[in-house]
Structure formats: structure tokens, C-alpha cells
Amino acid sequence: MESSEDFTAEGKMSPVFSIDLSTGKVADQKQSGRCWMFAALNTMRIHLMNTYKVPDDFELSQNYTNFWDKFEKANYFLENVLKTADQPLDSRKVAWLMATPQQDGGQWDMLCALIEKYGIVPKSAMPETFNSNRSSQLNKFLNLKLRHDAVALRELVADKASEAKIAETKDNMMSEVYRMLTYALGEPATKFDFEYRDKDKNYHFDAGITPQEFFKKYVNLNLEDYVSLINSPTDDKPFNKTYTIEMLGNVVNGRPVKHLNLEMSELKKLAIKQLQNGESVWFGSDVGQSSNTKKGIMDTSLYAPDELFDSDLSMSKAERLDYGESLMTHAMVITGVDLVDGQPTKWKVENSWGEKVGTKGYFVMSDDWMNEFVYQFVINKKYLTDEQLEAQKQEPTVLKPWDPMGALA
């Protein structure tokens, strides 16, 4: 790809923006797929920075939410195994379920479901471990465990075991999952002391606080105010309608995944309103398309493979979604925008790949790249129009488990 790079495009992507939020030091998810989690927690820590003047390197514990996400995903998987136990192994739903029992990725609503149930803690209360930073081996053996358990549960259903026997068996399985996660990630805090020195050098100490109390006191966001908006210009998803995805989630009976599909022009207006009010924007995109990680540039003009191979490689956004060329692969945070005559030309992006890429970890995204490869925004409902608010209240259409809008970032 580098052999087709257009170096003139780089000059247009200077990291200077008319709206530029202060968001602190960039975090690093290392060799794990927790970008959605890092991005969400990065949006939330801004409140602590602005209100409590915590240091720029302050982070909320990604490992705490990671622990409970894996625990809840295991339970969610086993429940789906039971729901599909009457279907043959070669049914598409069962095959899809067994392909990846659980993984690192997720979506905004799934993070909200975790926080609503378990709260949140600072990184000092549950720091990273080897297996949270490098998750492949934990995922391998946890998925082996879950597939092993799926065999047992399907056999119990086939043998017409009692509901009580099945429930007891699944409870034992979840106890084993908890033990595995504790070995790999540590045991999650139930109470902890929050201690820090603020930017004015004042010392603060809050003793014996629970994760739920910490979220309510220090983060203090009404998660119900924030909704998922998508841009999927495919024929099967009319705009101004809501959608959910079958078998997508983590917390059983927790907050469901729900998307409102809007035109990209409307999404941009909402993102700009939120930035102008000092709030960053969680978003999901296909980060591997037309991007240079080292330079921190995402721009459709960056490479010209069509010219390199003398071949037409063009596809519309809808075609890329319908034919498997693109889907959401990575979540990041929009922290700025450059407006020229009121129109966006480029956007500032906080990534979670550490400070060695981009400009100390921050990327520049062209407006055209947003048009083509951004699929999801999370926006406070107060910025939506009355018509959009009404549309968001609709009962969602249920999409197939393998729909591209169900991709985990």
C-alpha cells in the first residue's frame, strides 16, 4: 500500500483544529482488542479531569470492566447455547455462536450494561495484568472452556434433564469461569480507597468507596442520555429507523444494543454540537482502510491503489458493507474538529495505541474518510432534533447475528 502513497495528501492533514478539547495522555490497549472499552472510559475520564483536576495520566480501570465483560459474555454465551440447543450443529446460528464464544471486542451499549451492574473503578484499584494486556491466550482457553461447556449443556437438553439440573450445571460452569478470570486478571475490587493529588497539588483521599459509588460520585454521567447512532446506507436499513442485533450483548437482561440509522450529514452536525459543548464523541470505524498508523493519518486520498494497479477498485459504502469489504473494526474518540466556513474538513481523534503513533497517540481523520469508513457515533440525546428523538424511541428491527452493524470494535 505504501508504494501507492500520495505524499501531497499528508500536507493537508496537519494536526491543527478550530475546536480542540484537552483530553490528557493517550492510553494504550497493547495486544488486546479492548478499543471500545478504552474509548468509552476515555470519554468518561474527561469529567474527572475537568471537575476534580485529576492528573493528565489518570485512567479508569480497563481491567475491571474487562473482567466483568468476559464473565458476563461467558454467561450470555451459555444462555444462547441453551436457547439454540434444539437446533442442529450445522445450523447457521449455532455455527456462528460456536465460532467465537467470547472475545475482547464490544459496543457502547455493552459497556453501559456493565457499568450499570458493576460500576467503575480507577486504574489504581485494579491495574492491568499480563493477560489483560496480551489477551490471546486467555481468550483461547476461555473459549475452549466455553465450547467444552456447550457440549455438556446440549447433551443435558437432548437427554431432557430437568431445568433445575441444567441451572445447577451452568452455575458450576460460571464458578469455574470466575476462577479462571481471577487467575488471569485478578479479583475485582468491591471496595477501595481513592487517593490522588490534583493538578493544584492538593491531596485527596476517599476511603472505602464501592465501584457503584465511585461512578455516581466522580463520573456522574446518566448513561441513558447517550444513544448509539449509525450510518448504514444499505437497502435493508432505511434511515430514521432503529435496529438491534440478535444474540449481540453481554449482560443477560441488561441494556440491549440499539442503533438509530441516520444520514452521515446529520451525524456530523450532532458530533459538532457535542464537541462545541466540550464533550468528546465515541465512534466506531474501519480503521484499517486508507490509514497510516505511524503517521496517524486516516484519509481516502492517502493511497491510490487504483492507479498503482491500473484497475477500478471503487465501491460505495453500501456495497462495501453488503459484500464484506468493510465493517466496524475499531472504536476511538473524536476530540476536535477543524471548521472552515462552518464546514468540517478534518477531525482530531484520540486513539488507544499509546503515544508512539500519530501525534503522541492522536490521529487526524479527513472529513471524506469519515463519510466512507465511520459507522457509529454515541451522542447525548439533548443534541438530537425532536424528529430524531421520536425516531430513537421506536421498537428496533431485529437483524441477523452476522449483520455488519453487529460487528464488535
Notes on the protein architecture:
The protein is of the alpha+beta class. Helices cover 39% and strands 17% of the residues. The chain is built from 14 helices and 14 strands. The strands form two sheets. Strands 1, 4, 5, 6, 7, 8, 9, 10, 11, 12, 13 and 14 form a twelve-stranded mixed β-sheet that branches. The longest helix has 23 residues. It is globular, with a radius of gyration of 22 Å. The protein starts with 6 loop residues before the first helix and ends in a 10-residue tail after the last strand. This is Aminopeptidase. Its main location: cytoplasm. InterPro entries: Papain-like_cys_pep_sf (IPR038765), Pept_cys_AS (IPR000169), Pept_his_AS (IPR025660), Peptidase_C1B (IPR004134).
What fraction strand? Answer: 15-25%
CATH class descriptor name = Alpha Beta
Distance between the termini: 23 Å
Globular, elongated, flat, extended or rod-shaped: what is the shape?
globular
Number of domains: 1
Question: What value does the Rg take, in angstroms?
Answer: 22 Å
| Count of DSSP strands | 14
Output the CATH homologous superfamily: Cysteine proteinases
| CATH topology name | Cathepsin B, Chain A
Pick out the low-confidence regions: none
Task: Report the mean per-residue pLDDT as an integer.
Answer: 96
Biggest beta-sheet profile: 12 strands, mixed
What is the correct CATH architecture? Alpha-Beta Complex
Instruction: Give the structural class.
Output: alpha+beta
What percent of the residues sit in helical stretches (DSSP H or I)?
25-40%
Q: Count every helix, treating DSSP H or I runs of 4 or more residues as helices.
A: 14
What order do the SSEs take from the amino end to the carboxyl end, as H and E? HEHHHHHHHEEHEEEHEEEHHEEEHEHE
